[in-house]
Amino acid sequence: MKIYSSWQGLPPEAMGAAVALGNFDGVHKGHEAVLRALHAARPDLKRGVLSFEPHPREFFRPQDPAFRLTLAAERAVALDGVGVDFLYEIPFDAAFAHLTADQFVTEVLHEGLGARHLACGADFAFGHRRGVPQLADGQGPISSTRIRRLLQDGYPERAAALLGRAHVIRGEVAHGDERGRTIGFPTANIALGRHLEPLRGVYAVSAVIDGVPVKGVANIGLRPTVGGTESRLEVHFFDYEGDLYGRELSVALHRFLREEQKFESFAALKAQIDQDAAKARALLDVSGPKTA
Q1: In a domain, 147, yes or no
Q2: Which of 62, 125, 178, 250 fits 170 for a cystine, CB–CB 3.0-4.6 Å?
Q3: Residue 229 confidence (pLDDT) above 80
Q4: How far is residue 232 from each of residues 102, 199, 291, measured CA to CA in Å?
C-alpha cells in the first residue's frame, strides 16, 4: 500500500481510484464492509482510502481525553491488511477544516485524487450520497464508539470480535523505574499517548518480536503500589530476555484479568503477579492467540 500525505501533486498512478472516505479509527468490520462495497461497485479500479491525521475530533476538541483506537502507523498496517492500494492521509488543519463541501468534492476528490467512485459509512461528515449502511449485529451497528466502550468496560475479546482482530496498543518501549526486575518480572513500558485508555487493570497479551510470537501479562494504569502518576502499559513477556528499549512494539490485548489495585508490600504485589501470570498463560494457551 502506498501512503500519500496530500491530495495535491499526486503521481498519475495514484489517481483515478475508487475511494472510501472516513476516519477509519480501528479499521473494524464496519469499515471492511465499506471497502467491500467499494470494490464490488468498481472491481476494475484500485482501492483508496481518504482519511485524516490528526483525527478531526483531536483538532476541534484537543482538551478531550485520548480516544484513538489506532494511531496512524497501526491504521496503515490494518488498511494494508484488508487490501487497500492507496492511503491518502490528509493533514487536518484549520485550512482544511474551512473547506466547504463543494470545495472538498471539487478540489480534493475530483481535481486532487481524480476519484472515479466514492463510498463512505452512513455517518461520514460530508454526507455524500454514496454512503454505505452501517454493518450491524444483534447488539446494533458496529462502530468505533461501541468498540471504545467495550474496551473501557474491560471486554477486549468482545472488541476483537467487532474489529476482526485483537485491539493493539502500539508505541516505543521506554525506560521505567525498573522495579519489576527486582521482583523477577521485568517489563516493557509503553506510554498510552493518544491511545484510548482501556479499563485499568491486568490483561493477558501478546506481541510479535523479531517475527516470533510471544505471550505475556500486562498492567494498564497508574501503578498505585509504587505511587505512579501517569497511566501507561507495562508488559511482562513470558520466556523472553531481549533488550527492547527504544523499539516500537504492538501489544495485543486478549483478556481482562482483574482491576488495578494497591498492595501493602512488594511481596504481596509479587504474589499477585505470580497468580496473574499463571492465569494469563493458561488463558492464552487455551484460546491460542499467538500474534498481535
Answers
A1: no
A2: 250
A3: no
A4: 43, 12, 21
Domain of residue 119, residue span = 2-141
Q: The whole model's pTM is what?
A: 0.90
What is the per-residue pLDDT across 124-175, written as a single tens digit (0 to 9) for each?
Answer: 755 344 457 778 888 889 999 999 999 999 999 999 999 999 999 999 999 8
HEC per residue, the chain: CEEECCCCCCCHHHCCCEEEECCCCCCCHHHHHHHHHHHHHCCCCCEEEEEEECCHHHHHCCCCCCCECCCHHHHHHHHHHCCCCEEEEEECCHHHHCCCHHHHHHHHHHHHCCCCEEEEECCCCCCCCCEECCCEECCEECCHHHHHHHHHCCCHHHHHHHHCCCEEEEEEEECCCCHHHHCCCCCEEEECCCECCCCCEEEEEEEEECCEEEEEEEEEECCHHHCCCCCEEEEEECCCCCCCCCCEEEEEEEEEEEECCCCCCHHHHHHHHHHHHHHHHHHHHHHCCCCC
Greatest alpha-carbon span in the chain? 65
Q: List all residues 6 or more positions away from 264 whose beta carbon is below 8 Å from its beta carbon.
A: none
For 35-66, how does the pLDDT look when each residue is reduced to its tens digit (9 = 90+)? 999 999 999 999 999 999 999 999 999 999 99
Backbone angles phi, psi at 84, to 5 degrees: -75, 135
Q: Are residues 6 and 113 in the same domain?
A: yes
Same domain flag for 90 and 51: yes
Please tell me the total count of domains within the chain.
Answer: 2
Beta bridge partners of 78: none
Interval 108-138: pLDDT, tens: 999 999 999 999 887 775 534 445 777 888 8
